[in-house]
Amino acid sequence: NAGVTQTPKFRILKIGQSMTLQCTQDMNHNYMYWYRQDPGMGLKLIYYSVGAGITDKGEVPNGYNVSRSTTEDFPLRLELAAPSQTSVYFCASRQGPDTQYFGPGTRLTVL
Amino acid sequence: GENVEQHPSTLSVQEGDSAVIKCTYSDSASNYFPWYKQELGKRPQLIIDIRSNVGEKKDQRIAVTLNKTAKHFSLHITETQPEDSAVYFCAASNTGFQKLVFGTGTRLLVSP
Q1: Residues with Cβ < 8 Å from B31, sequence gap 6 or more?
Q2: DSSP letters for A8-21
Q3: Residue A67 DSSP class
Q4: Which of A62, A73, A66, A108 is nearest to A89 (CA)?
Q5: What is the pLDDT of chain A when averaged over all its residues?
Q6: What is B66-81 written as a DSSP string?
Q7: DSSP string of A42-55?
Q8: CB 3.0 to 4.6 Å from A103: which of A45, A91, A111, B60, for a disulfide?
Q9: How many other C-beta atoms can be found within 10 angstroms of the C-beta atom of residue B78?
Q10: Confidence tier at B95 by pLDDT (50, 70, 90)
Q11: A99 touching B, CB under 8 A?
């Protein structure tokens, strides 16, 4: 199993541009999550999903959108990128009350 | 909702010493408590977890203790080594709670 994979690994955006961060898991996990981690800080939950077709907001959803059309994929969409969205983005997945696995992260810079 | 507090924010020890990181949680229904280690530039990775039906769990040099009455749990690292230097996050979740709530992290520095 590849586990949780994310693309791209790095990206530089200009202010106002849009992009989609991709996340895929091959463990058939129901729960999937998007976090952002600013330098030297903790993990902030952006959005999460408890199954295909179901998404919900986390602590910091403004400026982001998600969809969950399949069990495997949970893309995160940034519309109108702002410098405040410069961060490392981690996707994660989990099956019920069991271990949560993180992807390798996407390092995003908005200039 | 659940709230998790973690202390200390930074911890410096000499190689060979023990390190203890403490977390408290607010929701008495929480029943799953994982600890994650995050090395610089890497993803968080699970190092140990404990469920509410046990009070202590060990895995080589690391152990976690849980006090359900006081609603706190702790990570213990013995015989610390420089490669233990990282940021450690605690978290809490209950059966019906679909998210892990993370603490703010502890930066552990082990000096040779």
Answers
A1: A97, B51, B52, B53, B93, B94, B95
A2: -SEEEE-TT--EEE
A3: -
A4: A108
A5: 95
A6: EETTTTEEEEEE-S--
A7: --EEEEEEEETTEE
A8: A91
A9: 14
A10: low
A11: yes
**Three-state DSSP state, B38:** strand
Q: What are A64's two structure tokens?
A: 């982001």
| Strand ranges for chain A from DSSP E | 4-7, 10-13, 19-25, 31-37, 44-51, 54-57, 64-66, 76-78, 87-94, 100-102, 106-110
HSE at residue A59, side-chain half, CA atoms within 13 A, is 15
Tokens linked to B20: 């203890």
Instruction: Write out chain A residues lying below 8 Å of B48, CB-based.
Output: none
Among A45, A58, A102, the residue with its CB nearest the CB of B44 is: A102
Q: In what order do the strands lie in the sheet with B19-25?
A: B4-7, B19-25, B72-77, B62-67, B56-59
User: Judging by DSSP bridges, how do beta strands B19-25 and A44-51 pair with one another?
Assistant: unpaired
User: Does A27 contact chain B (CB < 8 Å)?
Assistant: no
CA of A12: how far to CAs of A88, A90, B79, in Å?
A: 12, 16, 42
Nearest residue, CB atoms, A50 vs list B31, B46, B98 = B98
| Strand, helix or coil for residue A62 | coil
pLDDT at B53 (0 to 100): 83
**Chain B nearest C-alpha distance from A103 (Å):** 7
Within 13 Å and on the Cβ side, how many CA atoms surround A16? 0
Neighbour-count burial of A67, counting CB atoms closer than 10 A to its CB (0-12 exposed, 13-18 middle, 19+ buried): middle
Residue B8: cis peptide before it, omega within 30 degrees of 0: yes
Residue A109 has pLDDT above 80, yes or no: yes
